[in-house]
Design goal:
The chain has about 190 residues and is α/β, with parallel strands linked by helices. The protein is built from six helices and seven strands, in the order βαβαβαβββαβαα. Helix 1 packs across helix 6. The relative contact order is 0.20. The model has no long low-confidence stretch (mean pLDDT about 95).
């Protein structure tokens, strides 16, 4: 069944390893008939701006961040998708801080009706894409996955899936030359 998928690339390097993997995953998802929106956070005004704890979003019945930047409409659109893929490089044992800042702003997508949690994200499935200079066991990818797993669990969403490309170098060329990794990323996209 075709899904609406948003892939959010939280990498700073717009032509780096994470961007390459994200494009392969998007191509696979599109080949499988899914509708894909690829969001590159880096060029957006407000990229890296986390939640400022102003509670403006909580004083409204709308599920939107009150910060006037280009990231707010992305946050507001999240609930319109069946699946959200969060992608980031691993920097010093966790996801790049810019993606974490984006995730902190998910707070605008959560409200309480008495004791009951209300969120348009409660129907969304989350997945994780990570690249790192080290392997899975010594890079910090588990911290990123556990963070997204915590968000998904809080919202009552399914267990996130992970695509990991490790031992990446500073240059994207070795990754581009690794046909097996590219094929695996396309396959991951097809199976979203």
């Amino acid at each position: 069944m075709a899904q609406k998928i948003m892939i959010v690339n939280g990498a700073v390097r717009r032509a780096g390893n994470t961007a390459f993997i994200v494009r392969q995953i998007a191509a696979g998802a599109e080949a499988a008939g899914h509708e894909v929106a690829l969001v590159e956070l880096a060029p957006l005004k407000g990229f890296g701006q986390g939640c400022i704890s102003c509670f403006g979003c909580q004083r409204s019945d709308k599920f939107r961040c009150v910060l006037a930047d280009e990231v707010s409409p992305v946050l507001e659109a999240l609930g319109n998708y069946d699946r959200i893929v969060l992608a980031a490089p691993i920097y010093f044992f966790s996801a790049a801080s810019q993606l974490k800042a984006f995730m902190d702003r998910f707070y605008c997508q959560v409200k309480y009706d008495g004791d009951k949690l209300v969120s348009p994200l409660a129907k969304v499935a989350f997945d994780v894409v990570a690249t790192a200079g080290a392997g899975r066991d010594d890079s910090g990818v588990q911290t990123f996955l556990d963070t997204v797993r915590g968000v998904a669990g809080f919202l009552g969403c399914p267990e996130p899936r992970l695509f990991f490309a490790g031992n990446c170098g500073e240059s994207v060329e070795p990754l581009k030359d690794d046909a097996a990794v590219a094929a695996a990323a396309v396959e991951f996209g097809k199976n979203l």
